[in-house]
Amino acid sequence: MSGSIHLFNYFYGLIEQTTNTLIYRRPTMYNNPELIFEQSVPQGKISWRSPSNIALVKYWGKRDVQIPLNPSISFTLSKSYTETTVEYSAAEEDEPGVQFFLEGEINTSFGEKISAYFQSIGDIYPFLKQLKFTIRSSNTFPHSAGIASSASGMSALALCLCSIEQKHFGGLDSEADFFQKASYLARLGSGSACRSLYGGLVSWGKVNGREETSDLWGTQQIKDVHPDFLTFNDSILIVDAAQKKVSSRIGHGLMSSNPFSSARFEQAQKNIGRLMDVLKAGDMDAFINITESEALTLHAMMMTSNPYYLLMKPNTLNIIERIFDFRKNTGTPLCFTLDAGPNIHLLYPEKLNTEVNAFIDGELKPFLHQGRVIADRVGEGPEKRKQ
Ligand code: ADP
To answer: Is residue 147 within 6 Å of ligand 1 at its C-beta?
Structure first.
């Protein structure tokens, strides 16, 4: 299918006004009944490595089928990634459709989520019903702890599915078509996963005045960005590697009754517009101000939901206070952000590596879980692996 037919088929958000009722149609973009094996069902194996990402302007709140209530933008990471290998062959009765192994061990709960995901995209990829899958995956960082394993995991999986389509049905010829579809599919698995498909900085969600942006997939935003931001370091400070008690799925849902939600969605729209200008100008002070305010606002949304909850830990706050003090006392332009979890992402220009690492070792290590730091940086995006 060509890109224009995709757009023609796109009915998302089409609202029919019947007497007093609004009916939202399910997205039908990319639905394609022809993607079915007519003759023999093939077997094969495909692997992708896909990175996690860390949002600067946060996505928190969604509607319909994984459509964000405000736009977001993230740095794609480099060392925090998932590597996934999908082996597929003809489905057999009485055998599970998906067997999922995480770090070499069978993981039925992840496997069940992937089966449900495959079912949910059955109109896009009808051939999924004809196959059984053995999926082996590993993450380079703790999962379910607010470092976005859902983003790297679902983007790696979506890339494998697009490669299966490309190999057996053709199409997706241009790189742009391939990654756009992978981003669309990743979004249906986990919203912010759609930002992991490209390197550098990636937005997701319609930004006022930015035609290239979309609610349906991520858009790379590296044109006109000051080069300092494309080589930024992110030292991920592991305060707690345990699984968080409230999942992001529940957190997003609670935004529908949060009394501050509409102000938050407006604020995010303003912040992303400002941040895009700041990234272009290379204005570090404004970058720090927007990034830290976004992190604290995200957690404020959790605290002002009902039921209310906290994902920050005492050591999260201990570290934040030391970051404030260090910046004030030394003038070093570093800042923090948080994902939906207790762990701190310490962001700073690459050229400050030595002094920031001395600060981490000297002042922050005692607050970390087993002194653990993932020395990450802005990355280039996913990579197909050789078999
Ligand atoms: P995180 O902060 O790590 O994204 P979430 O609770 O939001 O935490 O997401 C964790 C979920 O992401 C897991 O329950 C699982 O469904 C999915 N996930 C994590 N790692 C992988 C992976 N390697 N492959 C597929 N899915 C994964």
So the answer is: yes
**Distance (Å, rounded) from C-alpha 200 to C-alpha 384?**
18
- Condensed to tens digits (0 to 9), the pLDDT of residues 321-358 reads 999 999 999 999 999 999 999 999 999 999 999 999 99
**Any atom of ligand 1 within 6 Å of the Cβ of 341:** yes
Name residue 17's beta-bridge partners: 22
Q: How many domains does the chain have?
A: 2
Q: Which domain holds residue 4?
A: 1-30
Q: Tokens 């928190």 correspond to what residue? A: 60
Q: Is 235 in the pocket of ligand 1 (CB under 6 A)?
A: no
Report, as an integer, the average pLDDT of 159-163.
Answer: 98
Report yes or no on 371 lying in a domain.
yes
Domain assignment of residue 136, yes or no:
no
332 assigned to some structural domain? yes
Nearest CA, atom 22, ligand 1: 153
Task: Give 207 Cα–ligand 1 centroid separation in angstroms.
Answer: 27
Instruction: Provide Rg for the chain, Cα atoms.
Output: 21
In a domain, 38, yes or no: no
For residue 314, the domain's CATH number is 3.30.70.890
User: Can you tell me which residue has the tokens 């992303």?
Assistant: 272
How far does the centroid of ligand 1 lie from the alpha carbon of residue 113, in Å? 10
